[in-house]
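quick one: 2P0 bound model?
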Amino acid sequence: MKSVTAYANTNIAFIKYWGKLQGEKNLARNLPAVGSLSMTLDDIGTTTTVEENDRDAFMLNGETLSGEPADKVFRFIDRVCSEVSAKRAPVRVISTNSVPTAAGLASSASAFCALALAATRAFGAELSPAALSGLARQGSASAARSVFGGFAELPASVGGEEVLAAQVLDENGWDVRLVVAKTTTKEKAVHSRQGMQHTAATSTYYPAWIADWRRDFDTGRKALLARDLTTLGEAMEHSTLAMHATTLAARPPFAYWNGATIDCMHAVWALRQSGTQAYFTADAGPHVKVLCAPADVEKVRAALTAVPGVLATLTHKPGTGARLL
Ligand code: 2P0
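yep, here:
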């Protein structure tokens, strides 16, 4: 067995994935109930090495992990082996994350994408980018989109059909920026998988979310291809707020936002009122990400930095797809 190292950038969804096809078989394959559309970010992701070892071991950021986080990785290795018909041998998986783990900056997206690429190659298989996205999706659905640079889509699965991610525009296809406002250093209390399953099971608004997501997806996809920031931004904000509304109408309710998250949203709306094209999104965590033109980055950063509770801002361009190192 070869020792293989791969790198994947994380991605942020403009149009949100939130909800899985239910039923044991569908859940085992992690099939999304809604379509999503994302931007892969530059220089923020996961580097993962997969190599032979005398027993399964998982190291993340220099620490050996055990329990569920490690078991999730080992189960994914089982899946890789069955998918590429390789004999399962024990492995050491060494990952380094430049994404804050489990704080809503999509660490599982880059993690399972890099792991899928490194593990398939370590076991001697070479998958097409589309097939690799199908495998990465089974680790974490958002990971399917990180296979591709620039902007990617992952369709909804209808009736349990297999779904693969695809590139919509490459990293040179549209020069935009995503400004990330960090509003905490803490890990989130409700992991996204748990959060989406809880809302699917209990939220009054989940049926409305499932009935309506396609409008934002179709509008957002068309706007992305037309490089229309205003239309894409409006669809992104709607998708974001509709997703978060499902959590507020769950029983018991929960919210990924903190006070600074909401203040950042108001700051973005104020920017628009004064003529700057800026649009927010937020994921399963309290950070706020703002889409804007490169020329408006400084204005957006200044507005977000002025919000009490914003700890730092980081600016990302569209990044490249997953690669071997
Ligand atoms: C997304 N999120 O589209 C959405 C928006 C969070 C909010 O994908 O259960 O970690 O592993 O498939 O991919 C986070 O969910 O969930 C996510 P699983 P994942 O980026």
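The first helix runs from residue 24 to 29.
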